[in-house]
Amino acid sequence: MSRLSIPAKAALAALALLAVAAGAHAAGADLGQTQKQATNWTAIGMFGVFVAFTLWITKWAAARTKSAADFYTAGGGITGFQNGLAIAGDYMSAASFLGISAAVMASGFDGLIYSIGFLVGWPVVTFLLAERLRNLGKFTFADVASFRFAQTPVRVFAASGTLVVVAFYLIAQMVGAGQLIKLLFGLEYWIAVVIVGALMMVYVLFGGMTATTWVQIIKACMLLGGATFMALMVLWKFGFSPEAMFAEAVKIKTDLAVKGGKDAATAAKEGFSIMGPGGFVKDPISAISFGMALMFGTAGLPHILMRFFTVPNAKEARKSVGWATTWIAYFYILTFIIGFGAIAFVLTNPEFLDAKGALKGGGNMAAIHLANAVGGNVFLGFISAVAFATILAVVAGLTLSGASAVSHDLYATVIKAGKADSKSELGVSRVTTVALGIVAVALGIAFEKQNIAFMVSLAFAIAASANFPVLLMSVLWKGCTTRGAVIGGFLGLISSVVLTVVSPAVWEATLGNPKGSALFPYTSPALFSMTLGFVGIWLFSLLDSSARGSQDRSGFLAQQVRSETGIGASGASGH
Amino acid sequence: MDTDLASRIASHPDYIALKARRSRFGWTLAVLMLIVYYGFILLVAFDKPFLAQRLGEGVMTVGMPVGLAVIVFTVLITVIYIRRANREFDALSERIARSVLK
Lengths: 575, 102
Known about the structure:
heterodimer, A: mainly alpha, Sodium/glucose cotransporter, 23 helices, 73% helix, globular, B: mainly alpha, 4 helices, elongated
């Protein structure tokens, strides 16, 4: 990764980061190419402690999970501060931690551009959606999107949007988990995937949202604590002077370029390139499109949206996003320091390099090696355990969200027409949880050797192009009708998937078609598919002259009153 | 919620004020965030040398504080919204609820 400062390669690395966002991938190649490491007993021991503690919490949570409301939303009894930490926990994946710090180590400033993209969606969620979501919804974002519409078509759309996003996110997480654990713990790939699948099922099945939330909170605290320690150690070694840290990093990158055979002037230029933007943004259209996917995808991720129903009212929902934004921003600043620390303490340390001078275990190991460099073997074990815990927590949240789409949206609302009792609904969500767990393990094993670099960006692009437009338009635009929402939503969903398949990342890199044969030249489809989603909703709502359409429009007033004031909101009283 | 209650709330002066203020404030801040973020992305796309120029004698570049400022701005603008909403919007909502749900 040390030679990636050339613009073209940096662009490749940035692309590869899409993968890293969920799993663990080095430039274009998956971690399948990395070797199994020696069994790390310290890490396994620490992870064992984490698992024992979270299982104990699950037992406690299980005693409180009696109704469907407990299962989906922890009975609405989570505070804003707790929920903020849990949202941050959902969002700070092992990949953001390992991937972004690795990207910063490889290309410096470009890693920062990437983090910023992931962060800027949060204010938009705060200003336009958080309170209204809490006031309108009960268990899933489909409750909100279908509030005044014909239930069956909108629920079917929302469940499809949820399951597709969850599936891609889940595959990326499972493959990432397997690769990462093979690396960190020295376990076999399939064992790692089965462990993740089994533990996740236990959390969700028995503890529902209460256990999932607390697993997220504990993991968020461990991750923030560990990353803070690493960043402080790095800064401390430079006398808390960022200038000294940057200067050392530039010097090391320059020396490496000289060693690579560059003349002094080129080497100096290459070394200094980590201080400014490189090849992350190749063409403006890709940059804007990718930015849109990150920014608006956040507002359409079903497992994140679901978290807004775990708090008692709109005020706590608002506070949750405030805390989540703060923690996530702080975390990204830490990963930036960690990345530069890795340049200073990992890149030149022969202990962490293989015979060819590349990082042992692959490019994504930057933060892991740095943990060893600043905190020794025990801290390395701790950080490895945190990385595993992180994947586990994110996977549990995703599964819970997928299970509620099936049991609440499809079973209780569509099949039983809203007449399912809490007990049978709960039963269906548990069966779905087991099914999703088995599917996730099977897919995780099936995709072991695949290049899944596109999956997380695809999940964000679909969320931005399908879920987000339907949610926003149904909540804010009076003219939106059932027909418009469903047609527009499916247009966004299908176009984002199709455009991703024919983009270079999938068509050429994954499917192995010749270079230059991809029909869609840009990194991310969001600019086009999200526009198509919005225009579709607008146009087909406008053209809708059906009786259902006028009923939808006349239902807007009552919906708006509830979304603005919370009067009549579910769970608004009694908590 | 029955339509009668909904239309009673909808014509309540506090509700009209709440809706207008929250919507104006929310959209203004959202547009500000979009301008700052896409301003940053366009700067990265079209004027890389600007961000890569040195600030002083050392290696520090313009891009570093600018990037940090975007992150800090994101948090600040969120906090600003939440503070005003906690103070003003919640009070209005409560007043509406009290006057219509007697």
